């Protein structure tokens, strides 16, 4: 399909609206993860609606020493990816267009949630993210905005801003898209050498180990609840293929839950720290997505297992959702 390139807010305002409008915000260098967001947006608004993709490398969210200058700018290729995925228009404004007169003196504050995890590692980052998201929501005036779940803390903060400040837009999270080897798709993956990429696979490997441990212990708990007698419980655990059923029955009762998930994930990360090149961990956290605080052992409900690390000069993040208190884990 033909995708229109829009450079100014005036061009965007002049565009006739048809049906519902969905916006997908990006910093360019579009890949299959972005294409998945665009296709999801097209499905939401239908053939009679409109999908607008924004391409803007936002200087406010880059801290000192971060990769603003080397962040890839590939607008021609981005137009092709957006068009193939179903976008009607790409809004690619200049910094002067988004921030007339220079950096804005009035900004959106991310509050306490924006100071945790990614916010602690990158002070002021989420203030910059929310400021540009607020501006782009005002400029594009969508009915629905879609964001990837790979940036889980960002998604949570955008949802909170939209709710707290009464933005009239629906926010939709789209599951993380992964490469065949499990690495979460990111524009920064292109910076990894072959050896660095092998090390980087520990991020998804750790998350999957935590998720698998959680699913296994939830299955053990469910099976154990079905049989009241201790001997019968051990037999049930044996039937599940546990090598040391009695020990595992005790572990399920005393050391399962969130801490077991953290331990399983950290074992993978500890191993990757000894590789060449090594993985340098920023954080591993198991948090409540409503405020991104660490969950306790008695937690029930939706949670996010999140990790951030550096491999060489490249910093990567990833996460998986989990559900505590019900059988199994969210996929």
Unreliable stretches covering 5 or more consecutive residues: 327-331
Count of spatially separate domains: 2
End-to-end distance: 33 Å
Strand order of the largest sheet: 1-4-3-2-5-6
Number of strands: 10
> What's the total helix number?
11
Order of helices and strands: EHEHEHEHHHEHEHHHHEEEE
The largest β sheet comes out as:
6 strands, parallel
Radius of gyration: 22 Å
Helix content: 40-55%
CATH superfamily of the largest domain: HUPs
Identify the overall geometry: globular
Name given to the CATH architecture of the largest domain:
3-Layer(aba) Sandwich
> What do the pLDDT scores average to?
90
What CATH calls the topology of the largest domain is Rossmann fold
CATH class of the largest domain: Alpha Beta
What percent of residues are in strands?
15-25%
Question: What class do helices, strands and sheet pairing give?
Answer: alpha/beta
Binding site for (R)-pantoate: 61, 154
GO biological process, one term: pantothenate biosynthetic process
Binding site for beta-alanine: 61
Subcellular location: Cytoplasm
